[in-house]
């Protein structure tokens, strides 16, 4: 199944199931996150049906309590950054207001000249997870989505912490749908691909992750409880713009697309901060 959060034609926020090109609103819970928390997503009642062109998508989970991101999780990316491979994952956070939906513009901050793309696979948590064993971790996943961890590289490197460059408002893309594990199938061979203005700039299989998804969930849930609707961005492959010669940064007017196998394609245009 594929689920979306969206605004109805009257502007009211809602959520529903994607059926081909139609979106079937689901009733019985106020939001997709609430439905996950109640554990009754599959049992909700169908409501109104909307044409995709009549609604505006929201980030898959518009209001996650926690967004945790894995840095340096592909060997090619570690190599291009010149960093040392560490014993444990590098974890940083984003805030909910830093995310925009599929089809909405990502905002290049006025204070950066180095706005970079990072295509990633996002994991959405489906039930409370605390101190989860690696062997059990996949049972806590509600689904997957595409993610663009848009990064202000200069701000990212002001000091040793990544966060200032990673969570400017409107800088990250998240969507278009939550794809349930049964529909996603085997992720290992599916490729994380990023295209900037049609040029393929990142392309690696999910299996190239240094720390796989169960390991990441085990590690993160050991230090913070995860709740339904929380998001984990699992890291970006090699090929980021900041490490190219010459560097390749996103600018106003650009179109960036993140595609991951059956998970789908996240598309955003870039605009300047107003």
Automatic annotation (TrEMBL):
The keyword Lipid biosynthesis does not apply. Its EC number is 3.7.-.-. The keyword Transmembrane does not apply. Gene3D superfamilies: Fumarylacetoacetase-like, C-terminal domain. SUPFAM superfamilies: FAH (SSF56529). Keywords: Hydrolase, Metal-binding. It is an enzyme of class 3 (hydrolase). Residues 66-270 form the Fumarylacetoacetase-like C-terminal domain. One of its GO terms (molecular function) is hydrolase activity. Residues 1-31 form the Rv2993c-like N-terminal domain. Signal peptide: none annotated. It holds the Pfam family FAA_hydrolase. This is Fumarylacetoacetate hydrolase family protein. It comes from Sphingobium tyrosinilyticum.
């Amino acid at each position: 199944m594929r689920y979306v959060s969206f605004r109805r034609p009257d502007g009211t926020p809602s959520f529903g199931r994607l059926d081909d090109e139609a979106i079937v609103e689901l009733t019985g819970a106020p939001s997709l996150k609430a439905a996950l928390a109640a554990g009754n997503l599959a049992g909700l009642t169908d409501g109104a049906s909307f044409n995709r062109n009549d609604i505006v998508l929201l980030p898959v989970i518009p209001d996650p309590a926690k967004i945790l991101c894995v840095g340096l999780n592909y060997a090619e990316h570690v190599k291009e950054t010149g960093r040392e491979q560490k014993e444990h994952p590098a974890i940083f956070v984003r805030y909910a207001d830093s995310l925009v939906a599929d089809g909405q513009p990502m905002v290049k901050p006025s204070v950066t000249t180095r706005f970079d793309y990072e295509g990633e696979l996002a994991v959405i948590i489906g039930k409370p997870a605390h101190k989860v064993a690696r062997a059990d971790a996949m049972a806590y996943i509600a689904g997957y989505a595409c993610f663009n961890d848009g990064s202000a590289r200069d701000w990212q490197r002001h000091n040793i912490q990544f966060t200032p460059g990673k969570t400017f408002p409107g800088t990250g893309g998240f969507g278009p749908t939550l794809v349930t594990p049964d529909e996603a199938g085997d992720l290992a061979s599916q490729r994380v691909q990023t295209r900037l203005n049609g040029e393929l700039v990142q392309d690696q299989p999910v299996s190239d992750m240094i720390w796989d998804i169960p390991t990441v969930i085990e590690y993160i849930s050991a230090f913070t409880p995860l709740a339904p609707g929380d998001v984990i961005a699992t890291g970006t492959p090699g090929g980021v713009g900041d490490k190219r010669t010459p560097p390749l940064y996103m600018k106003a007017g650009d179109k960036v697309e993140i595609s991951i196998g059956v998970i789908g394609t996240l598309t955003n245009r870039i605009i300047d901060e107003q």
